[in-house]
Amino acid sequence: xxxxxxxxxxxxxxxxxxxxxxxxxxxxxxxxxxxxxxxxxxxxxxxxxxxxxxxxxxxxxxxxxxxxxxxxxxxxxxxxxxxxxxxxx
Length: 89
What we know:
This protein has helices at about 35-45, 70-80, and strands spanning about 1-10, 20-30, 50-55, 55-60. It has about 90 residues and is α+β, with helices and mostly antiparallel strands.
């Protein structure tokens, strides 16, 4: 499942470590994979794709995604979803 939701980005550190600005988030969940597994697989791509996890959702801060990066994210998510789930023992 993919949805767009309102959220916040935490900016900087130093003088304003708690300062937040509004943004939109691409929130991804899957019935086949945990968000931790999806996040791990995204980091393993030749060009790592970074996201954060909050409230059991994989989040992409659209404020930080350049238009030329959108296809990379879509392709990475499509590839992950098409793979079988790894069984952990």
